[in-house]
């Protein structure tokens, strides 16, 4: 039974037809303006209509960043789009004559990993998406953990550091401020200001300007053996591993899947994560441990997960 998944990002919408094996059979995308909810809805309806010309589908899942109500209908709050208590399902469903659900984008991406990616075969999984921020999804006993109100698994906002870095959510010291692409670039830029000599390789890529250092540069120099680059990824990995150990104390997952743009660093990030995780895990040696795995689904995880959640 095919389904359509729609992934609404800050500046673009991507939609695809997904089959029972999680494969995308066709895909379309369109640019959008985050300040124009009406335009976003029209684009969703149009993309779905276009895809349905060639494919029979049973359901449509729409994923977006934000708090989505547990009845999968309302976006209560979105950080990047002008939605506040916004009845997104009601706005698009009348124009789409199959069932429509709304899902949180990180939950959708995590669900795709659980069903078709690195987490297939386990029943209990935590997904950590290390992108610009830190997103999460939690699967318990084969079910997505939604919480009482639909807003569970916002793991990026677990407080890790009292009086730490200010977070966009209004608090200080959130895990996301230490375990994300933004944290990596912040630390890299600070290191380059503090010690330009040591950051020579990074600065060469950034045209000599610390503020132009980007995440991919860190991976690039680290892969070439640069000490600072390796250290920056190790520091990031340590924050991720320590937090993952805390989540393991709560959830006892079989697998922790690490994805997002920063994972292009591969083992340069995974090895420090595993090491810090092991050091921080309570009662190590007296308990089975989750496997820590790189995500397998690429950028289309949101589409695949939203589609699959719509038909389940
Ligand atoms: P988003 O979170 O915006 O959806 P991504 O998952 O692509 O997007 O993550 C973007 C973040 O990942 C940025 O902070 C970027 O600096 C970082 N990033 C992207 N590629 C790499 C890389 N090769 N190595 C390290 N960091 C990277
Ligand atoms: Zn926060």
Pick out its properties.
single chain; 312 residues; alpha/beta; Nucleotidyltransferase, domain 5; 2 domains; 5-stranded mixed sheet; binds adenosine-5'-diphosphate; binds zinc ion
Protein described:
This protein has 312 residues and is of the alpha/beta class. It folds into 2 domains: 3-111 and 300-310, Nucleotidyltransferase, domain 5; 121-295, 2-Layer Sandwich (Nucleotidyltransferase, domain 5). It is built from 9 helices and 13 strands. It has helices spanning 37-54, 88-92, 105-116, 181-194, 200-205, 215-223, 227-251, 267-280, 301-310; strands at 3-8, 12-18, 24-31, 60-64, 67-68, 75-77, 84-86, 100-104, 125-130, 134-140, 143-144, 255-259, 291-294. Helix 3 (105-116) crosses helix 9 and helix 4 (181-194) runs antiparallel to helix 7. The chain starts with a strand and ends with a helix. Bound molecules: adenosine-5'-diphosphate and zinc ion. Adenosine-5'-diphosphate (ADP) is lined by residues 131-132, 181-182, 184-185, 214-216, 218-219, 260-262, 264-265.
